[in-house]
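This part of the workshop introduces the protein records we will be handling. The question running through the whole workshop is how a given chain folds. To make this concrete, we reproduce a full record directly below:
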Amino acid sequence: MISLQFVLTALVVVLAPGTGVIYTLALGLGQGPRAALWAAVGCTFGIVPHLAAATLGLAAVLHTSALLFSVVKWAGVAYLLYLAWQSLKQDGALSVSASKSHDSGWQIARRGALINILNPKLSIFFLALLPPFLSGNAASATAEMALLGAVFMAMTFAVFVLYGVFAAAARRRLLGSTRVMTWLNRSFAAIFAALAGRLAFERA
């Protein structure tokens, strides 16, 4: 069930720089390793509702319900645009600044969780990703989906922590240049805005 093929497939998916990775990098650069760790925690737990939906079959309901899909999608678009604004603001939650005060771990994790919770494509993604790796035994299908999901979450957390540690290590070198910090904040804002635009065009 937990085959090498599944591990490699999951690793490729997790390594791909998506919204959660960008968020973790921004926190690592802006607030250091502790913040990056909390970002990884939040993004990882934000996967849980989608894994549950895929396991229980609710993802199929989301896929077929245009209204429900649109509600979650546009909430996600609005949230990504909010994060873009927070990157541009001098005292914003995601701004890279030498003088920025640190947010609490709960605040960081909550924002990270919402990034994934408000992405309706994740439920459909897991509904497509996990079933091909099941044994075919209907009696154990739910348990197998849960196990595969747990492995995927563990890999997500580990990879995100590595991304965050890398960003935190580069933090000291970058904080001495106002020009570089301005460029980073604008870049993160542009990326979040672009991700919002891509999500806006997604269809169920």
